[in-house]
Amino acid sequence: MSQASSQAWAFYRDVAKNRKIWTIGEADGYPCPMTSRGKGAQPFWSSLSRVERIIRTVPAYAGCQSEEISWEHFCRVVVPGLTKDDMLAGVNWSGPRAVGYDIEAERLRQCVDAIIEQEAERKT
Known about the structure:
Blueprint: H1 3-18, E1 20-25, E2 41-44, H2 48-57, E3 65-70, H3 71-84, E4 88-94, E5 99-104, H4 105-123
Parallel strand pairs: 2-4
Antiparallel strand pairs: 1-3, 4-5
Helix pairs in contact: 1-4
């Protein structure tokens, strides 16, 4: 499994467990750098510590603020917005350039919801 793929699975599990997701905001909105696929991607992280590490260590995000989003709000508002704008979601980007796995927002929602459903079935 590649590092990006393992970061994605860690993201899905953490978000499914905590029902929270984090992104970063700037004074004029949200950073959405272009990916190698030629689409913009808004980055998201599965924990506050991950996003704060990026803000501290990646110069491009030094002036950003972390923003917590509930899973419900992400599904109801963010996913449709990213889909409408033909944007990808970056998951748990890491490293000195904050790079990683990018996925369609609806697919991200499906992956996390599948884990939530599996956990609910285990508890019954």
